[in-house]
Design brief:
Blueprint lengths: L2 E5 L3 H12 L3 E5 L11 E4 L2 E4 L8 H10 L10 E4 L3 E5 L2 E5 L3 H8 L4 H26 L12 H10 L5 H6 L5 H6 L20 H9 L1 E4 L4 H13 L3 E3 L4 E7 L2 E7 L2 E4 L2 E4 L3 H8 L12 H6 L5 E9 L9 E4 L4 H9 L9 E4 L14 E9 L10 H18 L9 E7 L1 H8 L31 E3 L10 H19 L1
Parallel strand pairs: 1-2, 1-13, 2-9, 6-15, 13-19
Antiparallel strand pairs: 3-4, 5-8, 6-7, 10-11, 11-12, 14-17, 14-18, 15-16, 16-17
Length: 494
């Protein structure tokens, strides 16, 4: 039986592991922490529970796919419920409940003018058509060599996507009202890129929200990481915790195994779920020539996604007025995003609030609640000013801003637990280069074929999964990256 070692028990690593274990490989995951999940992490303190990473569940069938493919019932491992409305959005002085029900959407859009609803339906038709092309020919296809992309059929499908305009400008072609434009454009921030510069293909994100809905996993997102872990172990897989991988060892352009705590753990193949830039610069033992395209200098010059400032607040009361998800967009949203891209801390930042207590009382002691506040900020390459003083000052500012903007005037008085994550947290805890929460920025030159591939181009038996490799960031896409990495291993070793 051939052996596969996986670096990291994040969602991509777990998904790859499940697919490989099911295909007959003997798979071992080496995880530096004492639990699985990667950025899909958890804080449990003083009776409060906080998901620390992703919180918005889209495309539930992708979450279910590893379980369905393994021949088990996903409902036996985790429970999802649909959220309606998807979220409350504050933009341009208005509070709009964003729905995935077409009747409700029509009721919300028509007051802005019948032409706006017509434009919205045109927008959905256009981006849905592009989504079906992207899904079939790019998202669920891995690339190995130039001929996988540079052939007439694939180039024709790439042309059909017409991705040269930005997400925002593509929306403007159909929607004239600024409030509605902003309502349909902020979702690119989910993958760490500005809608004013990100390729228009990423308008598939709001489309997926509106057509397929948003879901909530009972007990929180970390329950999904636990479900993947349980399935992998039931299939016979092994996870070694608190195993710090020092190096990926190679010889003659072949992977030989992982060096862990000074010892070499040999294997026939290695899948790294560690962030790709970190893997290439800090883990891979190979000459610069053998590293191929992604040498140290190239990795340093890549474009990195924005990061996040996160507040985890335990509050000794509940807020009935809050729904599960709330987005407050800056009055000058374009200026806010531009400031982030320029490495500035915005004076009027946009923010997102996750309030799981609205649906699940397991997140806090009786009568209390947990609040998660996320602020998009620059990565450490653009701004590394996160010392104790600046972090404390920004936390206080955001608590006051959340209280004022969401009409929670007594918020500060009721905080009984507080934890803060900055970009430096993501850099140190998860080896995210420059603290870029979403990995490499999904620019046109860093998407599809032009994103790092799931199989190394020069070193045999080395594969990659995660947000910085094809097909990209976002939990459903990272799940897909794990599956694609596993398919590459199977192709070479079966």
């Amino acid at each position: 039986m051939k052996t596969v070692s996986i670096v990291g028990a994040g969602v991509g690593g777990l998904t790859a592991a499940i697919n490989l274990q099911r295909a007959g490989f003997a798979v071992t995951i080496y995880e530096q922490n004492d639990h699985a999940g990667g950025k899909m992490d958890i804080i449990e303190e003083d009776g409060f529970k906080f998901d620390t990473g992703p919180t918005i569940v889209m495309m539930p069938e992708i979450y279910q796919k590893p379980f369905v493919d393994a021949g088990v019932n996903p409902d036996d491992y985790f429970t999802m419920t649909r959220v309606e409305p998807i979220m409350d959005v504050y933009t341009q002085g208005k509070k709009l409940p964003l729905s995935s029900d077409l009747v409700t959407i029509a009721r919300e859009f028509e007051p802005f003018g019948e032409g706006e609803l017509h434009g919205f339906l045109n927008y959905l038709t256009d981006i849905y058509g592009k989504y079906t092309i992207a899904k079939k020919y790019f998202i669920y296809q891995s690339f190995r060599s130039p001929k996988d992309f540079y052939n007439p059929k694939t180039l024709w499908h790439a042309y059909q996507l017409k991705t040269f305009s930005s997400s925002f400008s593509a929306i403007q072609k159909n929607i004239q009202n600024t409030t509605l434009q902003y309502l349909l454009s902020f979702q690119t921030l989910y993958i760490g890129i500005s809608p004013f510069s990100g390729p228009s293909i990423y308008n598939i994100i709001p489309m997926i929200e509106l057509l397929y809905g948003v879901w909530f996993i009972k007990g929180g997102m970390y329950e999904y990481a636990k479900a993947l872990t349980r399935l992998f172990e039931e299939l016979g897989g092994k996870i070694v915790y608190q195993a710090q991988v020092d190096k990926i060892e190679t010889a003659n352009r072949h992977v030989t195994g992982l060096r862990i705590n000074g010892s070499l753990e040999q294997s026939d193949a290695v899948v790294t779920n560690a962030d790709f830039p970190y893997a290439m610069t800090d883990l891979l033992v190979a000459s610069e020539a053998d590293k191929g395209k992604y040498k140290q200098r190239k990795v340093d010059q890549l474009d990195y996604s924005m990061s996040c400032f996160l507040l985890y607040l335990g509050v000794d009361r509940q807020y009935q007025e809050l729904n599960l998800h709330t987005i407050k967009m800056a009055d000058d949203f374009a200026g806010n995003v531009a400031a982030i891209d320029q490495g500035q801390l915005p004076d009027d930042p946009s923010f997102y609030v996750y309030y799981p207590t609205a649906l699940d009382d397991s997140f806090a002691p009786a009568g209390q609640s947990s609040l998660y506040v996320l602020v998009p900020v620059a990565n450490l390459k653009e701004n590394d000013d996160w010392d104790a003083q600046s972090t404390s000052a920004f936390a206080a500012k955001m608590i006051d801003k959340v209280a004022a903007d969401l009409d929670l005037p007594d918020l500060a008085e009721h905080i009984v637990y507080q934890q803060v994550y900055t970009p430096k947290t993501f850099a140190s805890r998860y080896n995210s280069r420059f603290g870029s929460v979403f990995g490499l920025k999904p620019t046109l030159r860093q998407s599809n074929y032009f994103r790092p591939h799931n199989k190394h181009s020069k070193i045999d038996n080395l594969y990659f999964a995660g947000a910085s490799v094809h097909p990209g960031a976002g939990v459903p896409i990272v799940i897909t990256s794990g599956e694609l990495a596993a398919q590459e291993v199977i192709k070479d070793h079966s």
